[in-house]
């Protein structure tokens, strides 16, 4: 461990500041829901949701990289931890959300009705 | 062969143990692998939530109407403030945890203990806040009616503001006693009865001509929707729940079958039945993680006090439990986004 005795206090408080600011921004947007973002879509999801999801991923990056000290680990360990999650989760989300949207369309447009 | 032989540790025997190809020792590596598998578990839950939500995208409850409570601010709608506070508490306890790890690197025992203590307090406040959130969610606020078809009807006044059942339900001279075990003939019982019967809600609705019914359906501001004569177009806004005309409200209410107050695993007053199920399951599973994190933190805290790691000349155990604690924070970041924001 090369970083055994050095202190990271400055970095810790800086990351705390970043995470707090992002959370405050999220909450403000969540309460105001500006129409410019809420009513305009990109890839069939509104811009506000895109903003929330991107900010969440930024927060996740800072928690894992700074607090869990991923930035100090070997790149092989980084890949072992991060790549299965990124690939499996994107695959799972793709398959489930597309399927769910399909079921929604079926109930909406065909004679099968969801009535309970 | 020369190119494929590992060169990481040429002086010792490569397969004899003792070398660390990933630069992390056994315990830390296993904690990372546990976190990967746990992250996949939570991803599965959140993906299932996404599946159900996309399937019922037009009737899913709006989070800012469900989570509106803040301590000591009774009756004041405060969407998101409380959960934002909870997020801060958890992020801050993550900061104190990483400060404890940092102090551990410098072998400062009392500092490690102090920051561990703060982390534990933060964790306990968070679990307590979640319990309070659950209490409000289970107790409910407005009450609703479930129709025979299973859809949910809520009530608003002529300005579009939500109205509680207790504000308009009539009191009818009817006797409906709860069936309890000691009154049943053969181990029969039923769950607690709602405060009002369906007939009382229907009678109260008839007596208050200003009331309207609000359905679960999210209103879409297009030409087809605008020509719908059953919808009150003045009160209903785009991407909000649909408010019906008085005539249509009465027709729908005639189909009422149950009074729903608060939430349980079968039905809830907020909308889609799956919404409460996922809320209980995912926040409950996360809360359980926070709780076990607090327990592990307490154990490590006492080990620090006893000087176990001082004797070991390494505070790496604090680092390992810190990884778990940050992971719990990480999961909350996603739960916060997908339950409260999106």
UniProtKB/TrEMBL annotation, chain A:
Superkingdom as given in the UniProt entry: Bacteria
Record key words, sorted: Cell membrane, Membrane, Transmembrane, Transmembrane helix
Subcellular location: Cell membrane
InterPro entries registered for this protein in UniProt: Cyt_c_oxidase_su4_prok (IPR005171)
One Pfam family it belongs to: COX4_pro
Gene Ontology cellular-component annotations: plasma membrane
Transmembrane segments: 12-32, 47-67, 79-98
Protein name: Cytochrome C oxidase subunit IV family protein
Organism: Flavobacterium luteum
Lineage start: Bacteria, Pseudomonadati, Bacteroidota, Flavobacteriia, Flavobacteriales
Automatic annotation (TrEMBL), chain B:
Heme-copper oxidase subunit III family profile domain location: 1-342
Family to which this protein belongs: Belongs to the cytochrome c oxidase subunit 3 family.
GO terms classed as biological process: aerobic electron transport chain
Name of the featured protein: Cytochrome oxidase subunit III
Membrane topology: Multi-pass membrane protein
Highest taxon above the source species: Bacteria
The entry's keywords: Cell membrane, Membrane, Transmembrane, Transmembrane helix
Pfam families for the chain: COX3
A GO CC term attached to the entry: plasma membrane
